[in-house]
Design brief:
This is peptidoglycan glycosyltransferase. By secondary structure, this protein is of the alpha+beta class. It folds into five domains: 28 residues; 216 residues, Penicillin binding protein transpeptidase fold; 285 residues, DD-peptidase/beta-lactamase superfamily (Beta-lactamase, 3-Layer(aba) Sandwich), CATH 3.40.710; 72 residues, no CATH class; 79 residues, Immunoglobulin-like. The chain has 23 helices and 27 strands. Strands 5-4-14-13-12 form a five-stranded antiparallel β-sheet, sandwiched between helices. The termini are far apart.
Length: 754
């Protein structure tokens, strides 16, 4: 053998060894891109309770990854289209296609320019994962080729193609085949036709040049070539090819969805891959439509915004939440009216009356809706009714139904002042009430403290559950649903529901045919803040609670729009929608409830022994808390009910809507009395320079009566006809009871130490 031949063979052998080493050993020395070692994280997506997409957020890289699919979830037809477009010998080469490199070199040399590439799916996946900035020179491409070989040796073909179609960009911020199918056709990848698969497979080569929304004509020739190659490779029959070539592509742009934007924004504080919300998508859309329609009718009266919350009482699930008229509107659309605090007006009153019912008062208890002043640390407080009228003797039912401010303030004073109401509201989750009770005072019951619509609606949902409290939730996770907590007595809450559903009880203020009257029973209360800045309407059935706020985000006043004309029509439409979708019921009467006829002028029960009366209506009571029976002593010879002398001015005034149904009792015992010392809110500072350190406080009424005093925190002492207490630091609530009538009045004092 000639020497030159021996040398040539030796060189070829060495080259073969080097080639084998390069092919099999060198790739292990070059590590794969770190991104391939990290699982791809999909975009946070939010679904309705039924699984309908609400929103798909952008990832931290600024794209959308709808879903990371497993190999078995990727349709075979889509894989075939991808291989026909990018790498038909994918299952035959080892990560780098040497035959394709040779072909590309020949074609490029013959044309004296680059007309063909030879990168495999392995190489493209390396390129995507490495994400090297700047121009990719021959050295970078060489390293990527070695890494592609490493990838082919380390991963299965199925793993490589799965990662590729999940990570590749399909343009328009869409990463991965699942995102592309949704983004271009608004359908799952599994539902794509061969023609649609070929279109998506055509995009990754140049996502900007082959943008279907802008250059559909430019991408169609490439799509047709892919279909033809699929046919050549035996992946499409003649008939399938013909159908695919003739198919008209119907693009449907999907931006990631923008349903229930305010609710989704509330959930973004705790991001996760998939959040199944409690929202009902269809109901959510209808609620948003109702808001838009009703606000158009109120535009001329300067009502620009509204918010609605719908809660499923059994679970605490928020079924719909709309925070504004239009999230994308430039005038504060992003403000969430369901979460921003506003003054609730009279919408707080039911909780005041509920406290009274819990303390033994009844729906027939009488409150004197007459002018009154209270001395407070900040001055004199004089509540006034919405209509600037007074209504005389009112049962609790009618006082609450007609939303009388004076009556509500008086009832709150009777049950202990602002503190027990504040404690109740805080326990029900109204998180904005952070000031001490003295800061709000008795005005708390008529809405002088801002609250959130969502939290107030959930407080009403506690009433709807007949006293069982549950937290609201936007996340549909049954495993985290807590057990309800008993907050109020069941029978008491039933009385409250009956009062709030009584259309007759609100007739004086709202009339017979207001928007609050529905063709089925619903408990409801409206609220209007001072100066017509906020409208509220909150109501419930056993199944659902609906809360509505209406107003303006700049806090400008509406033009004489109250809760019954602003928020109530929206509330009404939502409840009609709930009735249509789900059906509604009413409460079964709980054990221990009794019915009796009463005289609404006195609140007393009418029995067989009572004299005939000119007015009466049926009332319900907890059995152990029925009012005393009416007797002949309660009426004059004309059947007029006797009222205390404090009503004399009202009877003679134009506000007297009872006419000659009432008169004044002139006997001394009927004279009104009040606590003259201490007045509610009296502040005492102990002083060692005073006799007995200033600790003795006299308890007095005007006029003087035989009164029984008691206090839970101080012993009441008596010397002759004088009652007094020895003071200690703290707040002390005192009660004065007239034994003959059973009338109770309350006051409280605050004692500071020396």
């Amino acid at each position: 053998m000639p020497r030159w031949l021996k040398r040539l063979l030796s060189l070829l052998f060495v080259a073969l060894l080097l080639g084998l080493a390069t092919w099999f050993a060198l790739p292990w020395a070059v590590s794969l891109p770190a991104a391939l070692q990290t699982p791809l994280q999909p975009s946070s997506r939010y679904l309705s309770s039924e699984g309908e997409p609400l929103r798909l957020l952008l990832t931290s890289q600024g794209d959308r990854v709808a879903q990371v699919l497993r190999f078995e979830e990727i349709p075979t037809r889509f894989i075939q289209a991808t291989l026909a477009a990018e790498d038909k010998r994918f299952f035959d080469h080892g990560g780098v296609d040497l035959l394709a490199i040779a072909r590309a070199a020949r074609d490029n040399a013959s044309q004296s320019r680059i007309v063909s590439g030879a990168s495999t799916i392995h190489q493209q996946l390396i390129k995507v994962a490495a994400a090297r900035p700047g121009k990719r020179g021959w050295w970078v491409k060489t390293v990527e080729a070695i890494q592609a070989r490493h990838l082919a040796m380390a991963w299965s073909k199925e793993q490589v193609i799965t990662e590729y179609v999940n990570r590749i960009s399909y343009g328009n911020l869409l990463t991965g085949c699942a995102s592309a199918a949704q983004g271009y056709f608004d359908k799952p990848l599994q539902d794509l036709t061969p023609a649609e698969c070929a279109l998506l497979a055509a995009i990754p080569q140049s996502p900007s040049r082959y943008n279907p929304f802008r250059q559909l004509a430019a991408i169609l020739p490439r799509q047709q070539r892919i279909l033809a190659k699929m046919h050549t490779l035996g992946w499409l029959t003649d008939e399938q090819l013909h159908v695919a070539q003739k198919e008209t592509l119907k693009l449907q742009r999907y931006h990631g969805g923008f349903e229930a934007p305010h609710a989704v924004e509330m959930l973004r504080t705790t991001p996760r891959e998939t959040t199944r919300t409690t929202l009902k998508a269809g109901l959510q859309r209808q609620v948003e439509t109702i808001i838009a329609q009703r606000l158009r009718a109120l535009k001329e009266r300067h009502v620009s915004q509204a918010a609605v919350v719908v809660i499923e009482n059994a679970t605490g699930h928020v079924l719909a939440l709309a925070g504004s008229r239009d999230f994308l509107a430039p005038e504060g659309g992003q403000i969430n009216g369901a979460w921003v605090p506003h003054s609730p007006g009279s919408a707080i009153k039911p909780f005041t009356y509920l406290l009274a019912l819990e303390q033994g008062h009844t729906p027939a208890s009488i409150i004197a809706d007459l002018p009154i002043e209270y001395t407070t640390p900040t001055g004199t407080y004089r509540p006034d009714n919405y209509a600037h009228k007074t209504y005389g003797p009112m049962t609790y039912r009618n006082a609450l139904g007609n939303s009388l401010n004076i009556s509500a303030v008086k009832v709150l004073s009777l049950v202990g002042g602002a503190q027990p109401l504040l404690d109740t509201l805080q326990q029900l989750g109204l998180s904005t009430l952070t000031e001490p009770a003295d800061h709000y005072g008795l005005g708390l019951t008529i809405g002088n403290a801002p609250v959130r619509l969502l939290e107030l609606a959930n407080a009403y949902a506690c009433l709807a559950r007949l006293g069982k409290d549950l937290p609201w939730t936007l996340v549909n996770e049954a495993a985290t649903t807590p057990a309800p907590r008993r907050q109020f007595d069941e029978a008491t809450c039933y009385l409250m529901a009956d009062i709030l559903a009584d259309n007759q009880a609100r007739q004086l203020t709202f009339g017979q045919n207001s928007p609050l009257r529905l063709p089925f029973p619903v408990a409801v209360k409206t609220g209007t803040s001072t100066g017509y800045r906020d409208n509220w309407c909150v109501g419930y059935t056993p199944e659902f609670t609906v809360g509505v706020w209406a107003g303006n985000f700049d806090n400008s006043p509406m033009q004489d729009v109250s809760g019954v004309t602003g928020a109530a029509p929206i509330w009404r439409d939502v409840f009609l929608e709930l009735q249509t979708r789900f059906g509604l019921t009413w409460y079964a009467e709980p054990h221990g409830i009794v019915r009796a006829r009463i005289d609404p002028r006195t609140g007393k029960r009418l029995t067989a022994q009572s004299p005939p009366v000119r007015v009466s209506h049926e009332e319900i009571f907890v059995q152990a808390q029925q009012p005393p029976a009416a007797t002949a002593a309660d009426y004059d010879s004309q059947g007029r009910a006797y009222l205390r002398p404090e009503y004399a001015t009202w009877i003679r005034s134009a506000d007297n809507w009872m006419g000659n149904l009432v008169t004044i009792e002139t006997t001394p015992q009927a004279r009104p009395w009040r606590i003259s010392n201490p007045i509610p809110g009296t502040v005492v500072r102990l002083d060692p320079d005073l006799p007995m350190g200033g600790r003795r406080l006299l308890l007095q009424t005007e006029p003087q009566r035989s009164i029984s005093w008691d206090c839970d925190t101080l012993p009441v002492k008596t010397e002759g006809d004088v009652n007094y207490v020895d003071l200690t630091p703290g707040r002390h609530d005192l009660r004065a009871t007239e034994p003959s009538s059973g009338e109770v009045q309350r006051t409280h004092i605050i004692v500071h130490p020396e």
